[in-house]
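Note to self: user wants both folds in one dump. Writing first protein now.
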Amino acid sequence: MGIVKNRLFYVSLVIFSGAFFYFLAGIHREVNIYDEGVVVYGAERVLRGDTPYRDFWTIYSPGQFYTLAAVLKLFGSFVLVERVWDLFVRSLLGLAIFFVGFKLTGFKPAVLCWLVATFWLGYIGYYNYPLFPAMLFSLASLLFIMNYFFKPDAVPHLRFGQV
């Protein structure tokens, strides 16, 4: 069992790195002032103390602004930082797609799902689009649910009356 977990860890590392470097090849695209620019500008406003929906109107959820504001505060307020963050999120999304496919179908079909999803995610020209973190957390939730239903012994059950 330990060998399988180690092998899956190394496969996951290769999958994440492969997706990240594939996405890195397309990082030179020009800045889209609408989607990417609105999110970066909103994150900059959050860094200055503004609150979404109170101090500025937006169509995006506030979590994207707060998350990006934290990333920009840690690594500097540059578009490159925002884009690398987006590549990180997309690579994690590809990894989550691989894990869902692996749990449902096995290794080879999961790699095929990951390849298709990675090429699709690389084709999309929008950076820092709020859909990608939302999909990532949705798939992470799905993985937790699948882990519960596929291996019920892995989750301790509390019964009434137990402390």
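First done. Writing the second protein, which came from a different request thread.
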Amino acid sequence: MKKEFKIFEDAKQFVLLLNLKTVNEWNKYAKSGNKPDDIPSNPQNTYKKDWISWGDWLGTGTIATINFNYRSFEEARKFTKLLGLKRQKDWIEYCQSGKKPKDIPRNPYRTYKNEWKGIGDWLGTGRVATYNMTYRSFQDARTFSRQLGLNDNKNWTKYCNSGNKPDDIPSAPEHQYKNKGWMGWGDWLGTGRVANYNKTYRSFKEAKKFVQKLGLKNHEEWKSYCNSGNKPDDIPSAPWQVYKKWNKK
């Protein structure tokens, strides 16, 4: 037999007297055994034509995000720019502080999908998300990088973290310019160093002939020689890696 429920207004008036604050409290009450049979456990389904929100049903005044009327994007952005926040972390902390007006969305990238241009635009810092950044051409960026006088990629990382790097020069050029001119850090910084995997070495026979003329006696002497700066670039420091079959020669 189909249940007969109170009309929406009468049911809501009954519920308002319960002084419940959240949907969880309502669910606990509905399962407690104290709810009259003519009050539905799932009012949002029973009263589809009259249903507004849980805030309306419980009398809390809370409005679901999807039903909330927020300020226009321009007005909301104008407000947030005046806060002086610098990063997304600052924005999250501000939202959690309880100071944010209700008509400013916590997740603006969802509310303003069509106007959203990134957290830098929202907070007024001018920062542009990496995926929206337009970088200089490889040739122009490499020319700039070579003028810095940096010796290796560790110093490059320090420079990038210093805050002095222009925004249109990528922090990770090896990714940005992959297949677009990238040939290693030595080429990027102008040091002339070539990564081991890009080096061309002498044949095993020619390299061994050269090394045997050095008169070295053991591995320690070989290491000292490699560190001396006298070793030609086309002789590998770790021949056992370059010439994997060298023990068989």
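Dump finished. Worth passing along: The first helix runs from residue 8 to 16.
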